Amino acid sequence: MNRDLIPSEQSRPQVLLVEDDHGVRRSLQLLLRGRGLDVRAYASGAALLADPRALSAACLVADYKMPELSGFDVLRGLLDLGWTGQALLITGFHTAELVARAHQAGFSGVVEKPLVDSVLVEAVERLTRVPLDPAT
């Protein structure tokens, strides 16, 4: 195997994933890692916002409804800290009003749950501007 063809962790786009459901979080983390992304997964918005490494990420994938901080709160917190990446909201409560609110808040897209792997991967690919490995 040629190691020059394998992107190093430092050269891969970093994605922040915040999802309170452990099973969903782990599944999404494995899906995105399998596509060549460096994924940092968090069970809560507070944990994500407390991690100084979060500010270097290219993309945020945030659940809309979580117990303490919503996806909107997480994005607002990152922006207040000077983060300049792209954000994607995932939700089981998809409405036209929520999509409009998400765009006003700074989300670049909204993906409806239950998630279709290809839809999520295409959205993250678009936000990170990197073609992802279709190997999974």
The rounded distance between the terminal residues' Cα atoms is: 19 Å
Coarse shape:
globular
Fourth-tier CATH superfamily name: Response regulator
Percentage of residues assigned to helices? 25-40%
Number of helices in the DSSP assignment: 5
| Number of discrete domains | 1
Radius of gyration: 14 Å
Mean pLDDT: 90
Compose a concise summary of this entry.
With 136 residues, the chain is of the alpha/beta class. 37% of the residues lie in helices and 18% in strands. It has one domain (11-128): 3-Layer(aba) Sandwich (Rossmann fold), CATH 3.40.50.2300.
What does it look like?
The protein has helices at residues 22-34, 45-49, 71-80, 96-105, 117-128, and strands spanning 14-18, 38-42, 59-63, 86-91, 109-112. A 5-stranded parallel β-sheet has the order 2-1-3-4-5, with helices on both faces. It has one domain (11-128): Rossmann fold (3-Layer(aba) Sandwich). It contains 5 helices and 5 strands, in the order βαβαβαβαβα. The longest helix has 13 residues, at 22-34. By secondary structure, it is an alpha/beta fold. The relative contact order is 0.18.
Q: What order do the helices and strands come in, and which of them pair?
A:
Elements: E1 14-18, H1 22-34, E2 38-42, H2 45-49, E3 59-63, H3 71-80, E4 86-91, H4 96-105, E5 109-112, H5 117-128
Parallel strand pairs: 1-2, 1-3, 3-4, 4-5
